[in-house]
């Protein structure tokens, strides 16, 4: 089994609406390691495993420090789980992945396509990472699930970059294709319906249930080499509901990274 590194990225400076996700990584870990839940995935795999190393949290000064830190954490060929942070962190992470995985597929779960060419003049806004990833050719296939905010600009961007968008309004989880290359999963917590995950900056009703996302993750049968959990905003949470959901997803992602 390949080693797995966990990194926390304390960064929310590219959020267009509210700050808060910089505080998320440690609160997700706290929920996971509280006495509330055990450390087995639903598929019966323990995440108490010597192959997993948590490198802790990284304070970020400059946006592309995220790339430098990620490069260092995967230089020995480790797989990676990142706790964000706002969604802008995914571009520098994937940029670092490109050296190890020139052919990478991405499963992106989100209410938003995050495909803006720029947002309010910033090409690295949390509304833009997947435009940057696709224009650089860092993903062979980008599959988006849970989208419910497409506007004409982002629909045009999706077409331009040949993104496979599975919108909520006509979602059929069975229509999501199989992946052929090493897979990276990027989970924006606002992909869930705000009823399941109130602790996000952008409440967008009509979203995925916890069960739908878990089933989607369990259905993956290709090698998962990286994942991130982003946009958890503790300032907006209610009874730590979103922290516990993020912690559960962290556990299931670690199971997938371990090959189960
Ligand atoms: Mn997003
Ligand atoms: Mn989003």
UniProtKB/TrEMBL annotation:
PROSITE patterns: ARGINASE_1 (PS01053), ARGINASE_2 (PS51409)
SUPFAM superfamilies: Arginase/deacetylase (SSF52768)
GO molecular function terms attached to this record: agmatinase activity; metal ion binding
Binding site for Mn(2+): 87, 110, 112, 114, 188, 190
Record note on cofactor: Binds 2 manganese ions per subunit.
Gene3D superfamilies in the cross-refs: Ureohydrolase domain
A Gene Ontology biological process term: putrescine biosynthetic process from arginine, via agmatine
Superkingdom per UniProt: Bacteria
Cofactor: Mn(2+)
Keywords, comma-separated and alphabetical: Hydrolase, Manganese, Metal-binding
Family as reported in the entry's similarity comment: Belongs to the arginase family. Agmatinase subfamily.
Name of the featured protein: Agmatinase
Source species: Maribacter ulvicola
């Amino acid at each position: 089994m390949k080693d797995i590194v966990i990194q926390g990225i304390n960064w929310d400076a590219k959020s267009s609406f509210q700050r808060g996700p910089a505080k998320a990584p440690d609160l997700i870990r706290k929920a996971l390691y509280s006495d509330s839940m055990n450390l087995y995935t639903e598929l019966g795999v323990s995440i108490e495993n010597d192959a997993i190393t948590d490198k802790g949290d990284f304070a970020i000064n400059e946006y592309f420090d995220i790339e430098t830190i990620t490069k260092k954490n995967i230089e020995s060929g480790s797989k990676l789980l990142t706790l964000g942070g706002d969604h802008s962190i995914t571009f520098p992470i994937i940029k670092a992945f490109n050296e190890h995985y020139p052919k990478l597929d991405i499963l992106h779960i989100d209410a938003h396509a995050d495909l803006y060419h720029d947002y309010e003049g910033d090409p690295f806004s949390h509304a833009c990472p997947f435009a940057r990833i696709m224009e650089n050719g860092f993903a062979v296939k980008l599959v988006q699930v849970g989208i419910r905010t497409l506007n004409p600009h982002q629909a045009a961007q999706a077409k331009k970059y040949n993104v496979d968008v599975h919108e909520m309004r006509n979602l059929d989880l069975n229509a999501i294709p199989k992946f052929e290359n090493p897979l990276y999963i990027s989970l924006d917590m606002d992909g869930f319906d705000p009823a399941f995950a109130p602790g996000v900056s952008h409440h967008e009703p009509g979203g995925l249930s916890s069960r739908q996302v878990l089933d989607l993750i369990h259905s993956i049968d290709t090698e998962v080499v990286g994942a991130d959990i982003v946009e958890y905003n503790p300032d907006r949470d209610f009874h730590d509901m979103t922290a516990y959901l993020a912690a559960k997803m962290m556990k299931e992602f670690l199971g997938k990274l371990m090959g189960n």
